[in-house]
Amino acid sequence: MKVFNQALIVLARDKEVTIANTRLKDTVGDFKTREILHQLLSHTQETASYIHMDKYVVLEDMADYGLWEEYIIFPKLGHDAGESMLLAFNMVFATGYQEVVMIGMDCPHLSPELLEEAFAALRHNQVVIGPAQHGGFYLLGMQRFYPELFNFMDAGASHWLRRLLTAINKQELRFTFLPTLNVVQELADVPEDWL
């Protein structure tokens, strides 16, 4: 059954920009890094396909359009990931959704069960966070649009979680965490069966 007051957003970053900004290419090279990023993108799309609700994707690389045909597609929003998150949340909440969860494309251990857990957590919390081991997060969900939470945009990704928590506490919002997971930044973060 489809849920009408909930929406999922996928932030599908441009692979070339991601390659330029990852430590992974230093150990496996550009070609293998592209393969791993494609596997991450495919894994994220497959994971999201099990969730029955409206889905949006911020698609920075239109070459990946075929994976996202059943999604409402936003072309690249903003000049960086933080601004893309801010604008996507704002646009989706403006259409009337009551619970919105955003995921990136860099978490190989993301599962449909974690997505369901995130939406369940929003029944009792204003914000839900899936923290990443490297100091960022792989998932952010909200009951409504809180633009004040996006003051972390000018910080490096390793500081996003700390900055986000500071903003949440300042706004006195109820929040909860999902399990901490790895996001792919270096070779040790990649599942062995993907190599």
Automatic annotation (TrEMBL):
Domain of life: Bacteria
SUPFAM superfamilies noted in UniProt: Nucleotide-diphospho-sugar transferases (SSF53448)
InterPro entries reported in the protein's UniProt record: Nucleotide-diphossugar_trans, Trfase_1_rSAM/seldom-assoc
Pfam families assigned to the protein according to its UniProt record, in alphabetical order: DUF2064 (PF09837)
Gene3D superfamilies assigned to the protein according to its UniProt record, in alphabetical order: Spore Coat Polysaccharide Biosynthesis Protein SpsA, Chain A
PANTHER family in the record: GLYCOSYLTRANSFERASE, SLL1095 PROTEIN
Listed name of the protein: DUF2064 domain-containing protein
Organism ancestry: Bacteria, Pseudomonadati, Bacteroidota, Chitinophagia, Chitinophagales
